[in-house]
Amino acid sequence: MTRFAGKLAALMLIGVLVTSVAATPAFADWDRTNYPAIQGTIPIADGQDFAELSNISLVDAMSTAENAVPDSKAIYGKLSVINGYLVYKIVMMDENRGHNKVLVDAGTGEQLYVSDVKSKDSYKNKRNFDKKHNKKMKDYFKGMTPEQVTEKKKQFKEMGDAWKSISLQDRAAMIIHFMQIKMQWDTMSDEQKELKKQEMKQQWKEFLPLSPEEKKQKLEDYVKSLKN
To answer: CB neighbours (10 Å) of residue 15?
Structure first.
């Protein structure tokens, strides 16, 4: 496998990991949350490039979030502008797959806001919620027996558990890597994307049946490879 194909495999891996821990609701309303009138320490003007303006790292922000919500793990995060101030938005997930979001000041690393926890079932009664995702899941399980569907769902949950079980530093490193390779993905032609998708689909078939311990080890090994 080429180095670039390996990077794209990581991109797909993180995407499926996020889905497997039932983070879909958290991402569906990622930019729809009505936050209170928080005030940070780094003001950002409309259209201003803020990529290099944070005084803290993603690891720092995720650590703050986990201290704020000690019964949950930080599974995703990125820099954002809220009310004109630069913050990290961190998605948290607990053992019951309930999720909430934490805003962390990108200047001081202080917690600015913690949302209420939403259960994994809290969106089920919302009309038209996430139809695209539901269709993808329906298509994915099409033709499988009930027993096979149960086994696949178990494997997906194990993936999510493996993601949450690696260190905060490793999760942050993978998220940053994801951001970098996504930019490469966005520059590819549709034909190139389709070829890579087929390669990654085969790799994923080989990865999913691994034991929970093997899944965790694969993730940790990949993070180590990023440092080489």
So the answer is: 12
Cα distance between residue 214 and residue 221, in whole Å? 10
Which DSSP category does 69 fall into?
S
CA–CA distance, 218 with 155 (Å, rounded to integer): 15
Rounded to two decimals, the pTM is 0.80
Which H/E stretch holds residue 24? helix 24-28
HSE-CB for 171 with a 13 A CA cutoff: 27
Which position has the token pair 């496998």? 1
The domain at 29-114 falls in which architecture? Roll (3.10)
What Cα–Cα distance (Å) separates residue 40 from each residue in 55, 61, 104?
12, 14, 9
Residue 228, token pair as written in the block: 């080489």
Please choose, from the candidates 18, 52, 62, the residue with its C-alpha nearest in 3D space to the C-alpha of residue 169: 62
Per-residue model confidence as pLDDT tens digits over 149-198:
999 888 888 888 888 899 999 999 988 888 877 777 778 888 988 887 78
Over its C-alpha atoms, the chain yields an Rg (Å, rounded) of 18
155, 172, 181, 203 from 159: Cα distances, Å: 6, 17, 21, 14
Chunk the chain into consecutive blocks of 10 residues (it has 228) and report each block's average pLDDT, rounded to whole numbers.
48 52 48 81 96 96 96 93 96 87 97 88 53 69 90 86 92 86 80 81 81 91 82
Portions of the chain given CATH number 3.10.450.40 = 29-114
Nearest to 96 by CA among 114, 76, 121: 121
d(CA 29, CA 117): 13
